[in-house]
Amino acid sequence: MAAADLIARARAGDGEAFGELTEQYLRELRVHCYRMLGSFEDAEDALQNTLLTAWQGLGGFEGRASLRTWLYRIATNRCLDARRAASRRPAKAWDVPGVEPPEPTRLGEIVWLQPFPDAVLEGSVEAGPEARYEQTEAISLAFITALQALPPRQVAVLVLRDVLGFHAREVADMLDSTVESVNSALKRARASMRHRATTADRPPPAGSPGEDALVASFVRAWESADVDALVALLTDDVLMSMPPIPFEYQGRDVVARFSGLLFDAGRRFDLVPTRANGQPAFGAYLRTPNGPSHAAGLYVLTLTHNRISALTRFENTTLPWFGLPRTLPNR
């Protein structure tokens, strides 16, 4: 059915017509909200608010921009509202029983960060011709983390211009602003992103022999609690983080010491592979004597060439988003 007919039906109160009208944009809008907010749960809330606002405001859609652009305008402003809210998720205290962590290298500021399942990325939109970032880089944990450190309006401008490739005039219209203001915000955002240096060497391609070999080596080292084998896989400046716990450990020696403390406390893990943010990831399950292994968290690896440059541990509450169970049977 033609879009004009669907719009007319939706304006008359036909919910199925509205669903058919917007369904093709849901994946890309969800990813957009995630980039803006850094949280899978917050992105889902923002997407639902976007659809509600669009449903209620469809009578005011005049067709001067495409329906897709209009939906991006709504989604961006719903995300800006969420970014400005004071109720971002708070940091949590260290919660691993029987393990006294080493002094952290620093305390992370972005404690609300959550992973994004690769399965939900499938079928997302291609960027416009003015985009500066490859889509794989623009969903990586390093990129998403760097975005969260920017002021909300700069995040919106950078994502709309450099990730999605909208023209400056389109972005200005979305934000009820001017082209000059958009260009100024973009200049500041680009400078901040360059300063943060979200990427170093390119990771091996997903599913390549290089990635498979490195990931397999990590699994062997972690499941066997082999700290020496683990250290051999890490870059000198490897970063370990664990949102919403703010502790961050940077450097091979301190990451090795932290991992050794976990293993010395008798903690042993089984890993189940998945993918998050375009990166190798694992559901981590804590073994128990003569019983099932219990979900302990989600690990996401950042690979740089043939080494691991970051290891991010998320809470076990994220596992259902990846279709992973709460427990594993005893091996």
Helix-strand layout with pairing:
Layout: H1 3-11, H2 15-22, H3 26-37, H4 40-57, H5 67-84, E1 106-107, H6 118-121, H7 141-148, H8 152-163, H9 168-174, H10 179-196, H11 209-223, H12 227-231, E2 234-242, E3 245-250, H13 252-264, E4 269-276, E5 279-288, E6 291-304, E7 307-314, E8 327-328
Parallel strand pairs: 2-7
Antiparallel strand pairs: 1-3, 2-3, 4-5, 5-6, 6-7, 6-8
Q: Would you kindly provide a brief summary of this structure?
A:
Residues 215-306 form the SnoaL-like domain. Among the domains are: 1-85, RNA polymerase sigma factor, region 2, helix turn helix motif (Rna Polymerase Sigma Factor, Chain: A, Orthogonal Bundle), CATH 1.10.1740.10; 209-328, Roll (Nuclear Transport Factor 2, Chain: A).
Overview of this structure, please?
Keywords: Sigma factor, Transcription, Transcription regulation. It comes from Actinomadura meridiana. Interacts transiently with the RNA polymerase catalytic core formed by RpoA, RpoB, RpoC and RpoZ (2 alpha, 1 beta, 1 beta' and 1 omega subunit) to form the RNA polymerase holoenzyme that can initiate transcription. By secondary structure, the protein is of the alpha+beta class. Among the domains are: 1-85, RNA polymerase sigma factor, region 2, helix turn helix motif (Rna Polymerase Sigma Factor, Chain: A), CATH 1.10.1740; 209-328, Nuclear Transport Factor 2, Chain: A, CATH 3.10.450. Helix content is 44%, strand content 18%. Strands 1, 2, 3, 4, 5, 6, 7 and 8 form an 8-stranded mixed beta sheet that branches. A hairpin with a 2-residue loop joins strand 5 (279-288) and strand 6 (291-304). The longest helix has 18 residues, at 40-57. The chain is globular.
